[in-house]
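Researcher: Last one for today. Full complex below.
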Amino acid sequence: MNPQVETIISSRSWMKQSSAAKGARMTEAEGGCGVVGLASSVPLAGKHILKPLEQMHNRGNGKGGGIAAVGLSAEQLGVSEEVLRTHYLVQVAYLKPDARRSLESEFIDPCYEVSKMYEVETSTDKKVLGTLEVKPPAVWRYFCRVKGPVLDQFMKDNKLEDMDRQKAEDEFVYQNSFRTNHRWYASSGMAAFVMSHGRNMLVLKIVGYAEDVIRYYKLDEFKAHVWIGHQRYPTKGRVWHPGGAHPFIGLDEALVHNGDFANYHSVSEYLAQRNIAPLFLTDTEVAVLLFDVLNRTYSYPLEYIIEALAPTTERDFSLLPEEKKRVYKAVQRTHIHGSPDGPWLFIIGRNSYYENRLQLMGITDTSMLRPQVFALVDGDVQIGLIASEKQAIDSALESISLEVPSVPRYADKYWNARGGSYTDGGAFIFSLHQQKETPGSLRLICTNKFGTMVTVPNNSWDKAEDLKLTKRLPRVPRAGDLGEQFAARKDPVAEFKLFKQKLHEMTGSELNSLFAQMVKSASAGDASMSEYLRILTLMIDRRYPTGKFRRSRIVDKANEAIETILRALPKIEADDRSLYALVDRKNISKMRPPQSPYSILVLDCADFPMEGEDGASFVIRAAKDLGWNRVIIFGCHGQRFFGCGLGPKSKGFRLDVYGSPGDYLASGLDGADIRVHANGQDQLGQILNDGKLVVQGDVGQTFMYGAKGGEAYVLGNAAGRPLINAVGRPKVVINGTCLDYLAESFMAGNPLYGGGFVVLNGISFDGDGKLVELPEPYPGGNLFSLASGGAIYVRDPRKLVGEDQLNGGRLAKLTPEDWNLILPYLKENERLFDIPVDDFLLRVDGSRRNPEEVYRKIEPVPMVTLAGKKQVQETGDS
Amino acid sequence: MAERSGHYMDSFPEVSLSPAERLQFMNRFSVKRSDKCISCGMCESLCPYGVHKRVEGHTKILPPDDRKCMGPSCDVNYFFCVANCPTGSLSVGPSDNYQSMGDPRWPAEMILSTWRQAESGRPIALDDPANIGRSGGGFDKLYFRLPESQGRFDPADFDTSVRLNRRGKGEQIEIPVPFYGGGMSFGSISVHTMLARAKAAEMLGTFVSTGEGGYPDALIPFKDHIVTQIATGLFGVREATIQRSRILEFKYAQGAKPGLGGHLLHDKNTPEVARMREAVPYTSLFSPFPFHSVYSVEDHKKHLDWALAINPKALISVKVSTPNDVEMVSVGSYYAGAHIVHLDGGYGGTGAAPEIAKKNIAMPIEYAIPKVHRFLMNEGIRDEVTLVASGGLRTAMDAAKSIALGADCVVIGTADLVALGCVRCGNCESGRGCPRGIATTDPELQQMTHSDWGAQRIVNMYSSWKLQWCELLHRLGMKGISELRGRTDLLRHADKQAKEVGK
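Model: Here's the assembly. Have a good evening.
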């Protein structure tokens, strides 16, 4: 720990005493938001963060948006590399422009040697200005160092002579900015405030949407290694200045936050005890002040900072190594009152100056209350991403891939975090390290809280061949062997099998040509269209060795091929005899009933808004009402509510989804059949009552909340709280795992008499697409809590699930009746995902076992009620 | 008692006498006559109210008819029977039944007067003691500054209607009375009670909420008057029930037990209830306290958008309790697209809400309403949102006070049950505890309430309320109930008054 803790704290005693700060603790502004962060080994232009922010427009309400950029370009800023590296980049926002001269003479001129200062250029485009309700402040940029004598005096006055001079300078800048804000913001009618101060980083924020920041301050082509962005959704209506917008700053870091602490006052009190007082009245400011205290005052390593923010508790704590327990206990004892409680996700971008690295990190709360997705792209250009929604990550990658072709449109790895977990701590850090061999170039390394590296499943692809595949599909394909064999056969499954066999020997241009050939052949007629659509879909859905290429590239290309063939279909208004009819935003008015019951409506979602009555979900609904039985949607980019509102008479309706669907897909489903050929997002299948939902990937938070029935199959993981409060008779197979709170308050009767259940297989695919067991089938500390009905069948041959994870449930032996019940669902699971029951699920260490040796049943403990009856297990199907 | 006459009957054709067969008439006082009585007839000749009666030709006087007695306070009168009895055989005291009934919030007078109104539809005076409880706080400390009576009035001259949709979007719904029925789930009350409320809502042209136990099929004929509640447990909520309703109510919290979520204890979870909720019978059903899909305001917007994706025509009501930052919650709900912001205060709740929670959590509703009202005014959006108050509003005057504090209309729950004969015994959590067969799911007990009879009782009560509101408007010189909104200047607080007098 830092020996100067007390001295630093006492040097700040004046900060707490400022009267405005005292009053400030009384009220707190509230709100929610959408957040995104990306770190890249090459500098990326601001327009790439623009895209995901636009996509998460609906997570903000235009009352605050902001970005931070870390790892900047000296050339674009008009300073030398040396100045950029060593100087503090102080940005002051002048809400009242005439405040500048006096502010400078008070706080800039006497304290700093300014090597360069200028006003940040803004857009004069009428279109950009027209969208802004409130004119953004004029921002001045100062590259400065503290004047030697001033720093000497500061160190002397505050008895900081023993401190590292550079760190003392940090402290001076920090306090000087606070003083400026206090004088010019809190107590002077909000005339000006310091927007950011830090080395090689800056923050810009406005009243408006975050994308407006990029446009207004002309950051489209502004390059940085780390970007974070924030759409604010303040609850209160009128906002006239961006002081409350995110990101907030510590010193060399900027933080954005999604959520709302329940213990704002307690954290403020913790800070007040350390002489820190917030000025901007939001919990986000408090969060970054907290981070700064732990970082600069206590000088904790990152792991302990994260522990202080998101403590490891309960079962997770008990599973830690003894040494960690000892340290964590001490950290918790000192800092638990400062630990934010309630829903939060922090994304922090920082310049770790003393370690000479740039960092992006995401830290999640211990109850998994906020949606979050992490993603990693490996290769020549490495990118780490964090966002509230997976679709935002995909849209960022799509934008980047247009400029950097080696980056695919889909990440090589996506994952969710569980805060305070003993396995990874629920916090991930993307660090950009200087390469020793090649100075100037950076290498991105992703680690979790404990410093363990996180890598993509397979990074042994051939970079040159992979890059060849990035070329657009040729219009006139060169005929290849495989393509001709495809044309000769008429069985998509056999053709896909052939493709899997041949893939490892194919070159990039051959594969590209194959895709082009498939696109061309698909247009030959309805039969070949459905055949090639099926093969391409299998290429996306299945996991297999991907030869010289990365899997994400093949998924990308297959999606591109699907988009190409579907966009070439006859439009709905064309009087064509094809079974397929294409609808997009422009011709929805031409919708008509199907010509035959086998007709397929294809909906291009590219131009549809995220929600509302103009949204694609209403087109699907209208199609169903017109009598269409099959709808395929593609090109979706985060639109919500697909499959909602189809109503109870929707049995026999089938919807296939390609692209990146958004939240609440299939929520309310009552009979229809929905297949998602991608990862799902949050709140899928809420109150699902009947029908079938198949997700060829992961699903996010609160999957099937309050579900009542139906069947669902998930290839990958579910994040937090799947099946919470579900009742009735839902039948669910999750092949991966769930992070925590699976089937809390499950009330789904007795599965043996028609009630519901979840089969949790706890398996995954390795980098070669081979099925493997996860280290443990269920890592969370809460399983089947408070459940009174239903059951969980967990594949747990090594007996790793323990009673300590259960609260209200008990482990029971699998009976033959149980196995007969779940076997048909596992068989369907095998058909959907190619996960064999006999050849994999029932095999342990290579040998075939009996079902009761592999699967365990978790059932509720029966209760004796006051009514004197034992709980009656009624059937769900009545 | 109430024959079909009088002007109020003409203006409210829906009112008709509906006595409660099973409600024994309850007396405030009991008059006792001991064996020492010599049947001299003195008391009969003295009592102007007819408590004592001797039938011509009988030697013995009849037992005292204590319904008519005015009680021990009669001792100031020359005709006080107890003082005048030559043998000292008479005594007057409070009746045991009467004493044991009610509680400070719902004193016995108020219960009796609600029963009377439910039976006859006849209004009570605005300053009737039965319009005020004895809780020593809340609405019981607030009084209207009432000008003198202005003589007779015609109820047809007054407009008590309220617009529920003040936004451009969605169906324009107006209810002719400034209230609708609050959510009481199937399971917490019997299906007959639900039906009675639904039928009454139809007769009055207003709405009633399903509560969170699902939408029983019996209610489908009244679907235009049913609000589908989407609560945190999502019990019984399906696309069909969302699509069926004109109003959707998102229940985030209940004022009586904020932070606790709904709970239905095991005894009430009979097989019938469990089927509706698709849960396991005889297990206690707890809804989570939050929506697990909503931990933030942008989640909330998404949640409302979801309901609108299923039923784009519906009006959205957001029901929240009254935390200290209730104005932030309200304004956030409005910006997320809510048509109705429903503040549920802590005075309500049936006997099933835990005592520790009731009245002890969150801000009193009489503080929350004006706080939100003013905040919305300052935001400039007051006229785009319908502000609804609920939580322990017992009488017409409580409702009027809420409106004067800033609400547009109110939501009523418990008063409906009292109209059906609830004695406020507080045993609602137990499946077989309801002596009146209202808040029960027991198949036999629930037969005690018939839905047509119940609907008539509820209609009668509200007709009486409406007349009281008309009289109030008349005396205040107003024409419409909307003029009363936010007129805190018309209210006085009992404590303040006392202080002023003390000076």
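Chain B has a mean pLDDT of 89. Chain B has two domains: 30-93, 142-497.
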